[in-house]
Amino acid sequence: MLQDMLGNLWPKMAETSWQPSALICSALVVSGWGYFLYIGVIDPNGGVNILWPLFGIANQMLAAIALSVATGILIKSGKLKYAWVTGAPLLWLVIITSTASWQKLTSSDTRIGFFAGANDLAEKLATGVLPPEKAAIAPQLIFNMHLDGYITMIFASLLWLIVLDMLRISARFFNR
């Protein structure tokens, strides 16, 4: 997906057989997840707690993308009567993943919402109520929570983009 996206900027990047493109995109994706894994290991005050919700959202999004592709293939293959087999779980995953993402982004509960947790920690840091050892790591935790929030927005947007595109292509198939 990254190669395809970067191919819009530089067409050579979309060529999956071009080694530099495959290596660059693989390195970018692995580095991105590697950052979260590294932070999860070195952060004794919640690294895994910060990484886990993002991993869960990404995992469910990947399943929804696979179901979206399978549903599109069934529809385009003329097997509409079987599309419910992948369409029903797809609908369920889209609802659950979107709801979870929405809650992680908008919840005012500091234990649930990425931004609420970051804002609460920033307020505690600014008022000086954090012990010195927590105050030392608070900026990194605040950064990580904001980053998780923004990446969740990107993931949810991609999920909806892919599902809506599958529906658009399926509708075009019926209208021809």
Rg is: 20 Å
Number of domains: 2
Biggest β-sheet strands, sense, barrel: none
What is the CA–CA distance across the termini? 28 Å
Mean pLDDT: 89
The DSSP helix count reads 6
- Written as H for each helix and E for each strand, in order along the chain, the element string is HHHHHH
Based on secondary structure, the structural category is mainly alpha
Instruction: Enumerate the spans where pLDDT stays under 50 for 5 or more consecutive residues.
Output: none
Shape: globular
- In which range does the helix fraction lie? over 70%
Strand content bin: under 5%
Strand tally is 0
Q: In terms of topology, how is this protein built?
A:
Layout: H1 2-7, H2 19-42, H3 47-76, H4 83-106, H5 114-127, H6 132-174
Helix pairs in contact: 2-3, 3-4, 3-6, 4-6, 5-6
